[in-house]
Specification:
With about 290 residues, the chain is an alpha+beta fold. It is built from 13 helices and seven strands. Strands 1, 2, 3, 4, 5, 6 and 7 form a seven-stranded mixed beta sheet that branches. Strand 2 and strand 3 form a beta hairpin.
Length: about 290
Amino acid sequence: MHPDNLKWVGDFLRAKRESISPEAVGLSRPARTRTTGLRREDVADLSGISTVWYSKIERGQAAGISAQAFASISSALRLTKSERKYLHNLIFPQTRTYKAPCQTTSAHTLQLLTQLNPLPALLANDYLDIVAYNDAFQLMIGFDLNDLPAEAQNYLHLTITHPQWKRFACIDSEETLALRITRMAGFLRDTLAKRPNDDVLKQRICAFKAQSPLFHTAWSTNTVLQPEEVTYTYRHAQLGIMALDKQLWWHTNGNASSRLNVYYPQHDADFQRLQQLVSPNADQASAQP
């Protein structure tokens, strides 16, 4: 196992252990302890392994973690599906080539985005860069992303820095901002486990940590998430508050990969309003020049 992976496994397990109260797993809280959450010996006992061995895993000194130990620890710490997959990717890395994050868009993809009008849609890569989008999405956010520098056309960067984007995303409090940033930190951590040798991704993460104290804190919690289909309330720049279901479609083109986000209104009336707004403008999709 790569030394970085050993460290990430240990960091993740420690953060997860400290987030679980003894009562949550049927244990009594010790009378005298400075440990937040479970102790190492608690996890070891619940997993059926020795405390010495589990401690070595948390310190990043255990290169030979078995599938049985992985399964036992995952159960003891009540890992989610995303967390199990993340840990599995770190402990049992597979020798396979991942497609590079998409940076450009083909004519066929732009045509697809155009045909999705009046549904807002965007194409994003593993770095959370917004590679392309359609007229409906531009009308929804209220500004043209192509007016921004290339490095600013990034979902996380916009969430951290751009007031108009925050308004569109209904980020109206520090708590909401922290939740959104934590979700994206979880996505990037999951991506890093799949692409441990991606130096560009590592540089992006370091830059986000320097740029945003909230991201730095979110990264340190070792949250792991995979992109998922969710419902959010957005503030359309012209139509106001609207509940939209986000559906995800994975797209590959040659040696590159990306994710297509399509936003569906929950209510027929909102779809009609989108249709009336977009129809005069639905001539083309936008991509990075």
